[in-house]
Structures are given as C-alpha cells and as structure tokens.
Amino acid sequence: MNDDKPKKQFRRGKPRRKICAFCADKSTSIDYKDIVKLKKFLTERGKIQPRRTSGVCAKHQRLLAMAIKRARVMALLPYTQD
Fold first, then answer.
1. Whole-structure pTM value
2. Tens digits of per-residue pLDDT, 24-65?
3. What's the per-residue H, E or C state across 40-77?
4. Burial class (CB in 10 A: 0-12, 13-18, 19+), 71
5. Burial class (CB in 10 A: 0-12, 13-18, 19+), 38
6. Residue pair 64/56 in contact by the 8 Å Cβ criterion
7. Cβ atoms 42, 80 nearer than 8 A
C-alpha cells in the first residue's frame, strides 16, 4: 500500500509570542474616540478579537473592550456589520 498523500510538517519549538502594541508604545492610550485604532481590534463581523489573536496583554484587553463598548454606545462603532 503506497499512499501518495503529502505528509504534514510541524513546527518545532514554541510559537513566537506576540508583543502587546500598547505596552510597546508606552505613550499610547486607549480612547473610545480613536476609531481608527479600535477598528484594528474588531473582526469583519464587528466582534472584539480575543487576546490570543490580537496579541494584547490582559490589562490592555480589558481597557480595549471597555473603550469599544463605549464607542458602540456613542454610535461611533457598529454593534454588528452585515
């Protein structure tokens, strides 16, 4: 039995850890009025990206989620995008 399927190649070692964009640039603050910055952390459906995909630390993820929710209430960001 000779299978002609390509074999999967796996990476060795730990995956590279993402650096928090807000920790790297210490002068950056998270403001609900800065829509351009907040849109980077939303999916195309309008959901808030989780920490593991956005690479933001826990402290800044909480501040980011609060800022996005405030921007939604003020109608600066949509709740959903169809």
1. 0.77
2. 888 778 999 999 999 999 999 999 999 999 999 999 999 999
3. CCECCCCCECCHHHHCCCHHHHHHHHHHHHHHHHCCCC
4. buried
5. buried
6. yes
7. no
pLDDT score, position 1: 58
| The residue count for the chain | 82
Structure tokens given for 60: 């800044």
In a 13 Å sphere around the CA of 2, the CA atoms on its Cβ side amount to 0
Distance of alpha carbon 17 from alpha carbon 79, whole angstroms? 30
Can you tell me the distance from the alpha carbon of 58 to that of 25, in angstroms, rounded to the nearest whole number?
A: 16
The CA–CA distances, whole Å, from 67 to 13, 55, 63 equal 36, 17, 6
